[in-house]
Design a protein that fits this description.
By secondary structure, the chain is α+β, with helices and mostly antiparallel strands. It folds into 2 domains: 104 residues, Topoisomerase I, Chain A, domain 4; 68 residues, Gyrase A, domain 2 (2-Layer Sandwich), CATH 3.30.1360.40. The longest helix has 38 residues. The N and C termini lie far apart (54 Å).
């Protein structure tokens, strides 16, 4: 019986991790406003090692369309520029010899639609992750049933797992709808 309880407690926990990952991916997609989160995941070459940008520079938002990057070492200006260009975030860095500035252009209608499509793709990935977690949990329950657990308990567990899945998938859709609204608002 404790195995089934373990499965039922692990499943929502794993689904929550999928939601958190989905939200972090959405935060990297800009919705017209400058955000330091846009630069998460950008790696720069620091003495031969790939290092996250935030570990070699101070990243600040100057206004709604400008991000300032101030490296802690002046020698890091070129590697940071290369890292931003390689990340292909759609912005060209401007180097003034001390700081690097990223000027975000206003979003066109076409670009907004592309971003909404990209968000939809991230949403689909989150739903796939949640469904995979459901599949694994149900397989574990069926294995317990083969090992002698009663059929009624297994059916109840499967129903609980499906209910959790449905609630998490609806949460993905709510988060997605909010992000799409944010992107499409001018």
């Amino acid at each position: 019986m404790s195995d089934i309880n373990q499965i039922l407690s692990d499943t929502p926990e794993n689904m929550s991790k999928a939601i958190r990952h989905f939200e972090s991916e959405l935060s990297k997609i800009r919705a017209g406003k400058a955000s330091p989160a846009m630069l998460d995941g950008i790696m720069v070459e620091y003495y031969g090692n790939p290092t996250p940008l935030q570990q070699v520079a101070n990243v600040t938002v100057l206004d709604a369309r400008t991000i300032s990057i101030q490296p802690w070492e002046k020698s890091m200006l070129q590697p940071i520029e290369r890292g931003i260009m390689a990340a292909n975030i759609g912005v060209t860095p401007q180097n003034d010899g001390v700081n690097i500035r990223l000027f975000l252009p206003p979003l066109t209608e076409e670009r907004r639609k592309e971003l909404v499509k990209k968000c939809g793709g991230e949403g689909e990935q989150a739903k796939i992750s949640i469904r995979n977690i459901r599949r694994d949990a149900i397989e574990q329950v069926k294995k317990l049933q083969k090992d002698g657990l009663s059929e009624d308990i297994c059916k109840d567990a499967e129903k609980n797992i499906q209910d959790e899945t449905d609630s998490f998938i609806s949460l993905v859709e709510k988060v997605l709808a909010a992000k799409e609204k944010e992107i499409m608002s001018v």
